[in-house]
Amino acid sequence: MTEPLTPPKRKNPLKKTRGPLNPQGARSRTAHGLTMAATEGRFALQRCSDCGIVVYPPRDACPTCLSPRLPYQEADARGVLVAETTVRVSTDPYFRERMPWRVGTVRLDIGPVLVAHLHGDLKEGEPARLELKLDKGGAPVVFALPDKDTPHMQDDPQLREMTCDPTFRRVLITDGCTPVGQAMARAFSAVGSSIVFVGVAQAWKPFQGMDALRAIERVEIVPFDITDTESVIEQAEQNGGRIDIIINTAEHIRAGGIIERRGIGVAREEMDVRYFGLMRLAQAFGPAMRFRGADGVNSATAIVNLLSVYALMNWPVYGAYSAAEAACLSATQSLRAELRPGGVRMVNVFFGPLETEWFQAVPPPKVVPSALARAVIDALKRGLEDVFVGDVAEDVRARLAVNPKALERELAG
Amino acid sequence: MSASTLFELARGVASGAIRVVDLTQTLAPEFPTIILPPEFGQCAPFRLEEISHYDERGPAWYWNNFTMGEHTGTHFDAPIHWMSGKDLADNAVDTIPVRNFIAPAAVIDCSKAAAGEPDFLMTVATVEAWEREHGRIERGSWLLLRTDWSKKPYADYAGLREDGAHTPGPSPDVVKWLVEERDVHGFGTETIGTDAGQAQHFNPPFPAHFYMHGRGRYGLQCLTNLDQLPPKGAVIIAAPLKIKHGSGSPLRVLALICEART
Prior knowledge:
The structure holds two protein chains of two kinds.
Chain A lengths: L31 H9 L3 E4 L6 E2 L16 E3 L3 E10 L5 H4 L4 E8 L4 E6 L8 E8 L5 E7 L10 H4 L9 E4 L5 H12 L4 E6 L9 H6 L3 E5 L5 H11 L5 E4 L16 H27 L10 E7 L10 H21 L5 E7 L17 H14 L3 E4 H13 L1 H9 L1
Parallel strand pairs in A: 6-8, 9-10, 9-12, 10-11, 12-13, 13-14, 14-15
Antiparallel strand pairs in A: 1-2, 1-3, 4-5, 4-7, 5-6, 7-8
Chain B lengths: L2 H13 L2 E5 L24 E9 L2 E10 L7 E3 L24 E8 L1 H4 L6 E2 L1 H11 L7 E5 L7 H5 L1 E2 L2 E2 L3 E2 L1 H11 L3 E4 L17 H8 L3 E4 L10 E7 L9 E3 L2 E6 L4
Parallel strand pairs in B: 5-7, 6-10, 7-11, 11-12
Antiparallel strand pairs in B: 1-15, 2-3, 4-12, 4-14, 5-13, 8-9, 13-15
Helix pairs in contact in B: 5-6
């Protein structure tokens, strides 16, 4: 039985804040196949194209037939925990602070035996299901869970090292004026985040849903304008030391390509909100979050950036918008590297057209804001790094993996 | 007029016999700007980015870059701002004769009438009543409309509702009358624009812009401290930045008031 999480006690101000540490994180290029699957929450292993055996750990040649053709494929994650052990002493600085730590060997039904981190509710001899997780340092690891869900299983201490569960954490939603921002506020309140700070820019400007937003439990409206460096810094000075998760909902969506835009005024606004906005956010909040990456139950854990899937490949109908999203995506890759030493995850949530006014002329399927909010919560609970929400986003992602040039031509219409 | 008159002026300013009143709002990011429907181009709000602050970016000095629109904060409207003034001579901030940046002001206090009435309109009758008390407006004067709007919290100041902004301003008739019958220098307000919040529904729409700029007159908006000015006798110094082909410009607006007669 997992001990359910209780609201964390107030910190003793006389004690030093525990600094973040990461487990050893080096992986071979081939092993990054596991990284790719783990970031999206898939379970994939190498399967030999010639003799068909499933291979683990990752190799460059098949151990039975020596074939070099070992692509990663989705694999059945069921197996049995054949042996377990509890590590009580370690020389590794990260694990020393987290002893005792249970590990075990799981024999998969499809063949290979894997060493895995163990969930507290899984015992030797029991059926298990494996997941690929990202550890604190973002490296892929195998995690074994009981085959059926158990009560409060997400509260298991070893599992929580791999996830960014928003329960009892304090969240900042950067823009509460949009339907997406408001859906996020509702979702994080419902999931038990202890404070949901919601940013409102230009408070003198009324917006739709204002009263409903104020009425949400544990929502605290704060002045926050991502285009205004001073405003972002002020909010970081005010609350930056206790914000554990940031959801960047700031958006600037306008249709149109490059040539038909007259001048660069709107493009500047797009870049200001999306690219420079993320930069302001990271510079103001990043240092404190990185410092608080191991600060107990409500440690700083993630920055979630909502991104158009057209950041990955330009959709000329929204061409200038796609370009700004691409700049924002590139910045998140740098941020990921910069946040990693602090154990803070940079989560990108990609979506296609939304069911909002700025995609009015786009036919369905479209993503409703509440679905986007559900996907963000799910991503945090599972500890994902890249998430694709809705049919369009998944489709773009799949086509990009197969033939980027074909996708470029097809999006050009 | 002699050189000693000018020297007298400078001495009066230095001694305080001539009081200098700042009619300018501080340029700050949070100060409201005009809001157009989101599909239109927008006037950029004021933004400040540090270049250096005695740090590794510049060890011994502090300075900033700022960005904003021509119509952000307390600003000047040139005739070229409106299509009715687009073909006039010397209609942009860089070509307006510099002597036009100094002019006397008539200040009409409508603060009582506008209090609690965001849609208050100044009419010809309002100005005529003022003239009966203070005498005729001298030609070439700025007409400044005092409403005390500058003292309001930003939400009330911008006055945005479902059907647009609700802030006081002039009626179409009075603007035309001020230009044609009183030959004013320009029109100034405390609100975000020289026109009333609902002026897009007037005939013509935005009459203060249409008539003033159509006849080569100027606009000042987002003024403050109008309550410190006498009805007559203040001299306004309002010199916009010399922006090439500029339609307007943020600026420092000063009023000179004679405190003691010598």
